[in-house]
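Quick one:
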Amino acid sequence: MNAVVATSVFAVFMVATVALGLLALRGRGKGGGLTEWSVGGRSLGPVFIWVLMAGEGYTSFSYLGAAGWGYNYGAPVLYVVAYMSCGYAIGYVVGPMLWGYARRHGLVGITDMVAHRFGRPWLGAVVAVLATVFLLPYIQLQITGMGVVLSVISYGAVSLNWAYFVAFAVTTGFVVVSGLRGSAWVSVLKDVLVIATLGFLALYVPLHYFDGYGPFLDRLVTEKSDWLTLPGHGGGGSGEGSGSGFGELWFISTTFLNSLTVVIFPTTVAGYLGARNADALRRNAMYLPAYNVLLFVPMLLGLAALFVVPGLTGAESNLALFKLVVDALPAWAVGVIGVAAALSSIVPMAVFMLVIGTMWGRSVLSLVPRLAERQKSAAQVVVVVAGSLALLLTYTAPNTLVRLSLISYEGMAQLLPMVLLALVWRRLTFRGAFSGLIVGVAVVCALVFSGNDPVGGVNAGLVALAANLAVALAVTFAGPRDADPRPDAEVLADDPDAYAGDRKAYATDPG
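Output:
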């Protein structure tokens, strides 16, 4: 009976999710072209941008991984709160810069920006392929996360294989039709449920299991003090074969690297470019850190689970939060909390798929003459293909993408010079940026897959980025300047309005 109730609640909300995605197109004809589909016609207001960008940061990791990390290690999981908050601060400056540059030149993503800045369309295609390799694991991880949630809240009645397919079908169904605008609408539903469910659990679990926060925290300090300091319980480890742990150097270097990387992450940039004006991005950069307060809840519940469901090992520790929920709450409440967790998978997964489709439709398939005029259709096909590939690998070779996910953020960081430095410094040459990218990706792959992450306690991605920058600068200064620069490919430093926020030019123009 419990399985029927919880699964029915889940099913109702999934239908509502698809309906919201379709309603987002109301009054917009057939959905417009690629710009409308991929960046919401650059017309999303502050509320939609806020929930959309918050949705990208609050994924299934927040319900599963954050609780699991809290359960296994403790304090090191706070790096998530640290880097996201720092990233929002950097985004206060970078977001309006990228928005202004893309708006002036009709660009819809980082691949467009790179191709435009260096005047080489094929370079956008190369970046699209590379970014896809680093983004695809995130789709697979969200499929896996939502599948695990559905299987658990159904009390095992829904198998993991069927749960994975539901995750893929629901997300693909509405994102292909409604694009970024649909994701923003669904984010509203997700945020309401996330705030309500986590707020409830933050109060209920300590009271139900420990008679309040005082006894819970006292017991935590007395019995589990190792979980409250770096490097956390057992010294941690940041990769397969790594024993360096999650110490202070790792925490600082990871926070620094991720806070820089998140501002040029393709999904973040999609949120930037969907804004109606630059001021909306600045306001959101100030308000978004408040959303991070919610991340403390699953971390805290993971610590609570140490006493309630001890002995969880391996991947089972990621279910620490739901072990508490299933054991303590009625089936309908389990279903609602499961929906919040599932939507925390669906929204970011939709944006990941959307970004991959946009990058390929705009920068790769557009190089084929017959597809150049059908960019939106090509992008929608790529969304289905990318989602299907992630689903197929989830079934057949889950460890392939799990291993790739080890370098996702660290690999994406290697695009920082080419995407961001190149847009604020005209002197950076194509040869320098491209050489640095090759070296950075090679170094991070070598370090991560050989089990040497972190390196002496420092995040391997930061070591690779340092090598990337060194090569990019050396080649730039040693070689010739780029010949015949495009007159319209000005960098952001040439146009203060791109980042200072010229209100007359941009803020009042909804276009």
